[in-house]
Structure formats: C-alpha cells, structure tokens
Amino acid sequence: MNTFDSRGKDSVFTGIIYGLLIVSVLVILVPFFYVIASSFATEHEFMSRGFFIIPHEWTIEAYGYLLSNANFKAAFGNAVTITVTGTLINILLTSLMAYGLSKSWLRGRRMMNFLVLFTMIFAGGMIPTYLVVKELGLLNSYWALYLTTAIAPFNLIVMRSFFQNIPAELEESARIDGCSELRLFWQIVIPLSMPAIATFTLFYAVQNWNTYFYAILFLNNSADMPLQVFLRQMLIESDSGMEVDAGGFAYTPAVKMAAVLITAVPLLVIYPFMQKYFNKGMLMGSVKG
Prior knowledge:
This protein is an all-alpha fold.
C-alpha cells in the first residue's frame, strides 16, 4: 500500500513538472512564432488581425525592404565585427589568465584571485569607466568595447577551476620532455579544455552580439553603431511618430519583426553546434573552486 502511494505521489509530481515545462515552453515559443508570422505578413493583415500565428498571405517584402536599408546592413556588419573580434579577445585573455591562476606555484596568485573576486562584488561604475576610457584615448573606438569587457570574472573563475581539473602528471611529463609553458598551454591544455572554451565562447559571443549600453556610451559616430543600437533607434522613431528614417525607409510593423528575427538568427544557428560542449563545460568547471 505504501509503495502504491509512493508511486502515485511520484506520478503526480512528475505530471506537475511536465505541465510546468509545457507552459514554460509555450510562454517562450508563442511570442517567437508570432514574431516569425508577423515578419511574413502584409501590413494590412497585421493591422486588421492583431495577434496571429499563421498569416493568411505570406510575403517577404519586409525582408527585402530591410536588407536594402544601408543603415541596417552597416549595423549588422558592425555587430559581426564586434562579436568576432571581441570574442577572440575575450576567450584569449580569459583562458590565459585562468590558466596562470590555476597554478599553485604562481607568485601573488592569492591576491590576484581576491582582486578578480572583488570585481564581481564591487564595480567601478559608469562614470569612472568612462573617464578611464577617455583618458586612454579609446573613445569612438571599438577597443573601448573590447577592453572594458575583455574578461568576465565569473567566466574566469569557472575556467580556472576547469584548468585545475587537468591532471598535474600530464603537464609534468610534458615539461620533462622539454615542452615550454606556452607550448604546453596551446598543444595540451587547450585541446583538453575544448568543452570549457566552447562554452565561454558562446557566452562571450552572446554578450558581444547584444552589446548596447557601452556602444552608446563610448561611440559617437552613428556609422559605427552595432545592430542593437539600430533596433533601438528604429523603435524610437516609431514611438515618436516618425515611421520614416533619414534615408527614407519606412519601419512598418512587419519590417520591425523581420529586424528582430534577423538579429536573433545568428545565435540560434550557432547554439546547436556548441550545445554538446555546454553542459560538460559548465559541470566540469564547477567541480573545484
């Protein structure tokens, strides 16, 4: 009888969990499908039907109209440049620093670890950061974006823990064979750390692709603005009643939805290829502190 009651409770609990998961999936997917449907709908249908998942009449005019917009193409190219370059800098500096801090023989290691942890709790703030960037002469330069977000403390700590899990005997044998520290890092440690590298590459890529605040803070030239700033400008012009920008492009609802979808597609395409590394990299990197 007790066994039956236990199984019954487990079944109810499992049913509740699946129900919550289904609701969560619907909450996420329904707006996403609405964006897709709206981007392929005509303006008349968008205005007359309101909410819909399947448009009555399909059209790609919004995408053609958007891709002919020079401002959008420039912003998309800027976002790609920032993401690729910024992610390479992020993962290079983070992995090098994490590898050094993972070695117990490194002098000053305890103080450096404390300083990394300190930055997770206390940040300098917007104004001090701006003043430092200004004094370094990095305003109106992508280097202001790259260097101010070069190393994320959380990513560094987890990657350091991942490097600590690599057997010390493997590194010692490489050193005995005459392998230098830099060669050991590139040819042995990095190949063994691909789950962590891939995981944090994805994190940094998302961070750089979605950069917005630092872009409007450090960049003044509109031609250098990334995609997120362009999307915000599109919404501002729409909310203020200006449906047409300076170049004569009208931002209809379908065009806005198409812009949102195009912005999301690159990350959606990349994620499935890196998903196999994601869970392994996070779990192995959180075993030791």
